[in-house]
């Protein structure tokens, strides 16, 4: 039996990629490609709605899908911790629906973020530099925000990172006390460096996406998990075994 999928934001780069992946997979059926001129009602009848729209649109897509009993896979940036907490409160106790929010579908990116959270306990000076194409409308990226939040969680008992002169605009935007610097440039797909400064040393954890094909394995993994998701799940890291044996 195939799982019926609707892609909202289907004409964008990620929407086209997700649509191709769903079309090629034997266990999925693409029943709707919804673009900016379409109606959300086009997703009705789907088992999973994939939201790859814009930050200003995404929340409405998720709310509509959940109201109609459709599970959601969110690949749109802009879901802050406050926004996610509000979503969790909305569907608390509703065991019939689930949402998976994935800031980045790249397995390598997820691993780099996990490594950063591990290293955060050993360094007090931490900053993030992230770069995306000039067409990306939001900054900082969802991946950078997720990385900073996990760093903050890892340092809960240690306190905020050292970020001098944070009042100056050139020092970046602070998320969980971590300064994030965003580049939006032609010729870039996606790149993130997490830089740790210590006594006489600097550690840099770097990940670069060279092609959208880097997202394919993560998209399939998230789609299959979205079939049975309940509640709110944030991050591809929740769907893989970080102990080293691969996908969960």
Can you walk me through this structure?
The protein has 248 residues and is α/β, with parallel strands linked by helices. The chain has two domains: 3-105 and 212-247, Rossmann fold; 107-209, 2-Layer Sandwich (Dihydrodipicolinate Reductase, domain 2). 29% of the residues lie in helices and 29% in strands. It has helices at residues 13-24, 55-67, 81-91, 107-119, 142-154, 216-226, and strands at 3-8, 28-34, 48-51, 71-74, 98-101, 125-133, 173-175, 178-185, 190-198, 201-209, 231-234, 240-241, 246-247. It has a six-stranded parallel β-sheet with strand order 2-1-3-4-5-11, with helices on both faces. Strand 12 (240-241) and strand 13 (246-247) form a beta hairpin. Helix 4 (107-119) runs parallel beside helix 5. The mean pLDDT is 93.
Record keyword descriptors for this entry.
248 residues, alpha/beta, Rossmann fold, 2 domains, 29% strand
Structural class: alpha/beta
Helicity level: 25-40%
Reading the helices and strands in chain order gives EHEEHEHEHEHEEEEHEEE
Sheet of most strands = 6 strands, parallel
Radius of gyration equals 18 Å
Q: pLDDT average, as an integer? A: 93
The domain count comes to 2
The name CATH uses for the topology of the largest domain is Rossmann fold
Distance between the termini: 22 Å
**CATH class assignment of the largest domain:** Alpha Beta
Shape: globular
CATH architecture tag of the largest domain:
3-Layer(aba) Sandwich
Short summary:
With 248 residues, the protein is an alpha/beta fold. It has helices spanning 13-24, 55-67, 81-91, 107-119, 142-154, 216-226; strands at residues 3-8, 28-34, 48-51, 71-74, 98-101, 125-133, 173-175, 178-185, 190-198, 201-209, 231-234, 240-241, 246-247.
């Amino acid at each position: 039996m195939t799982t019926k999928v609707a892609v909202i934001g289907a004409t964008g780069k990620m929407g086209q990629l997700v649509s191709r992946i769903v079309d090629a997979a034997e266990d999925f059926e693409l029943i709707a490609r919804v673009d900016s001129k379409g109606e959300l009602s086009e997703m009705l009848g789907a088992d999973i709605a994939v939201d790859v729209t814009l930050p200003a649109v995404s929340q409405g897509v998720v709310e509509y899908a959940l109201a109609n009993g459709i599970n959601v896979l969110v690949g749109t940036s802009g879901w802050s911790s406050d926004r996610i907490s509000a979503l969790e409160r909305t569907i608390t106790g509703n065991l019939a629906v689930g949402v998976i929010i994935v800031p980045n579908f790249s397995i390598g990116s997820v691993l780099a973020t996990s490594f950063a959270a591990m290293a955060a306990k050993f360094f007090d000076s931490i900053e993030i530099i992230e770069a995306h194409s000039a067409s990306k409308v939001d900054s900082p990226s969802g991946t950078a925000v997720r990385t900073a939040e996990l760093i903050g969680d890892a340092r809960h008992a240690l306190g905020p990172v050292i970020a001098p002169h944070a009042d100056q605009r050139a020092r970046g935007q602070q998320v969980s006390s971590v300064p994030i610097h965003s580049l939006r440039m032609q010729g870039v797909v996606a790149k993130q460096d997490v830089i740790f400064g210590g006594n006489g040393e600097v550690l840099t954890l770097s990940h670069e996406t060279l092609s959208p094909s880097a997202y394919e394995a993560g998209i399939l993994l998230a789609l299959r998990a979205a079939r049975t998701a309940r509640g709110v799940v944030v991050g591809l890291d929740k769907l893989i075994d970080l102990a080293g044996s691969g996908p969960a």
